[in-house]
Design a protein that fits this description.
By secondary structure, this protein is of the alpha/beta class. Helix content is about 30%, strand content about 25%. It has a single domain, classed as TIM Barrel, CATH 3.20.20.70. The protein has a ten-stranded mixed beta sheet. The radius of gyration is 18 Å and the shape is globular.
Length: about 260
């Protein structure tokens, strides 16, 4: 497995859990706003056998969870073996994905506890999805991954969208939520704040902007107390990770 880095302890990658984070190298999307773009460069990272990674995980007694991120983890041929070995250690296993490889996700299900699917735009809108991801995308694969996970009650399912001003519009977000509502999504939807970091690359520093806390709330305010089959969360530098209804209730009480 090609690894670009490991974080020993994170409290931000899996809600309410401390986790070790493993970053895999390579991705089949070319999102310009990607915060881990360094993982896509030729020659980055090193090859580590799953059994060697298990030794590292086993030595870390402070975490009960492992998050496998990237890049796109499902491009790694030995991902299923790694997930199986982590599961056998009794750890909670989470995988981040862009949803482009539903066949791999199906194979992983017996060994994982959670999937976070990065939904860039409405997956029924091919043109828009390709604009946001700067890639040729088979949106039927995204929909397929969604259907596989949404029909499986054993896996915690999170869908997230990074709100990037100058790229993602409020209408994009509303269309994603409409898709989730129409397809009876039963997990958690997270609107997360884009923030520039060194991983985005300097040349994109002025191209994209970070939305404010208030902007994100205003986009989602219409969904307060709406009869949805899923919960909506905001993830940003102000509140961390908090449900929309809790945020709006708190703001109302502060008046």
């Amino acid at each position: 497995m090609k690894i670009g880095g490991i974080i020993d302890i994170s409290t931000k990658d899996i809600p309410n859990k401390s986790s070790m984070v493993i970053f895999t190298v390579g991705c089949n999307f070319k999102c310009e706003f990607c915060q881990n773009k360094y993982l896509l460069y030729d020659g980055v990272g090193k090859s580590v056998e799953p059994k060697e990674l298990i030794k590292i995980i086993r030595s870390n007694q402070l975490v009960g969870s492992v998050s496998i991120s990237g890049g796109e983890p499902t491009l790694q041929e030995d991902l299923p073996e790694l997930c199986r070995l982590i599961s056998e250690e009794g750890k909670y296993v989470s995988v981040d994905t862009n949803g482009s490889r539903p066949d791999i996700i199906t194979y992983l299900i017996p060994y994982i506890n959670r999937v976070a699917l990065d939904m860039k735009a409405n997956p029924l809108d091919l043109k828009r999805y390709q604009e946001v991801s700067s890639s040729q995308v088979d949106v039927s694969k995204i929909v397929g991954t969604f259907q596989i996970l949404n029909s499986n009650e054993q896996v915690d399912f999170e869908i997230r969208t990074t709100h990037v001003e100058n790229l993602i519009t409020p209408n994009d977000i509303h269309k994603i939520i409409s898709f989730l509502k129409e397809n009876q999504f039963s997990g958690t939807y997270v609107l997360q704040q884009y923030q520039y970091s060194e991983g985005v690359e300097e040349k994109y520093k002025d191209k994209f902007q970070k939305p404010t806390h208030g902007t994100m709330i205003d986009i989602l305010r219409k969904y307060k107390d709406t009869d949805l089959s899923f919960n909506i969360y905001i993830r940003n530098e102000v509140v961390g990770y908090e449900s929309l209804n809790d945020i709006l209730s708190r703001l109302e009480n502060e008046k």
